Amino acid sequence: MTLRIVFMGTPHFAVPTLTRLHTEGHEIAAVYAQPPRPAGRRGLQLVPAPVAVEAERLGLEVRTPVSLKGEAEREAFRAIGADVAVVVAYGLLLPQAVLDAPRFGALNGHGSLLPRWRGAAPIQRAIEAGDPVTGLMVMGMEAGLDTGPVALTHEETIGPRDTAGDLSARLSAACAGLMAEAMRRLEDGTLDFETQSSIAARTGRETLYAAKIDKREAEIDWRRPADAIARRVNAFSPAPGAWTLLRGERLKLLRAEAVEGAGEPGAALDDALLVAAGDGRAVRLLEVQRAGAKAAPAGEMLRGAPVPAGTRLGL
Fold it and tell me: What is the pLDDT of residues 108-158, one digit of tens each?
């Protein structure tokens, strides 16, 4: 049999899962996404969410409520008569009445190895913290923040140069496959769950919260250790993008690695964007973006705007 699904997601991360469930023949009764947002330099154009664009391409009904807290929206959701709600990076709070409406409740694709990194930015915070591995979990949703029991897990190694964009792409693909498997097991009654407390006891994982990234975190302090700087650059790429000042202008830093090299923090140690950090090591900037320009490998930028050794960044 096929399942009658309500899909709830907003960004590109969620699109492969929607496409996969539709391809597998499930009935997608409705797709919920956040409302169109202002875009462009002046913010004059309203742009629909990537999930909404894909749903319309597939010929599916799209709903974009600002909130699900009102009784009218809750009743409209209940009236769908879904077997299950599939939630992937939707971004809106789901009241208990919404979670309880589908016959099998709601399943969420969450980008961490729970209970580590509950919250809004699990992929970014895992990179920033230097975790060697993260993953994607299909979990049953509860009223608490990412506290529900876990059904399926995919683990993913974090490489030293991986950005949040790289890792998101891999976990997005993993989510599609894992959620499709969850639907198959839900259909035949073999989808089993393990509590997060049991997972923590078995694995030793501590509960950490992945706070939403504040743009004020994005300015690089070259007095910090090289590893911490490189991880923050990679964690905040592509958005919001870590940055530093170069000759009084913002330079967005999109990929970096910590290497050997000592000097005054913030000083360029060679002509190829090797920058001294605060712990006697250095950060090699691998991908950057000048104001008004496209992101580019550091070498490409340097051909048009050299940064000789001795140049001070952060000033």
Answer: 999 999 999 999 999 999 999 999 999 999 999 998 889 999 999 999 999
Task: Give the containing element (helix H, strand E) for 106.
Answer: strand 106-110
At residue 151, the 3 state secondary structure works out as: strand
Two structure tokens written together for 196:
């997060």
End-to-end alpha-carbon separation of the chain, Å? 63
pLDDT of residue 41: 66
Enter the DSSP assignment of 7. E
> Residue 37 — φ and ψ, nearest 5°?
-115, 150
What one-character DSSP code corresponds to residue 207? P
**Distance separating alpha carbons of residues 148 and 260, to the nearest angstrom:** 43
The H or E element that residue 39 is part of is strand 37-39
The answer to whether the CB of 194 falls within 8 A of the CB of 150 is: yes
The encoded tokens of residue 253 equal 């830093």
- Phi, psi (deg, nearest 5) at residue 220: -80, 130
Report the C-alpha gap between 186 and 190 in whole angstroms.
6
Tokens representing residue 108 in the block: 């969420």
What are the pLDDT digits (tens) for 80-119? Answer: 999 999 999 999 989 999 999 999 999 999 999 999 999 9
Token pair for residue 262? 């000592």
SS3 content of the chain, % helix, strand, coil (to 5): 30, 30, 40
- Residue 31 contacts residue 55 (beta carbons within 8 Å): yes
HSE-CB for 119 with a 13 A CA cutoff: 14
Cα(123)–Cα(158) distance, integer angstroms: 10
In one letter, which amino acid is 118?
A: R
Do residues 254 and 287 touch, judged by C-beta distance below 8 A? yes
Question: With bands split at pLDDT 50, 70 and 90, how would you rate the model's confidence at 1?
Answer: low
Average pLDDT value over all residues in the chain: 96
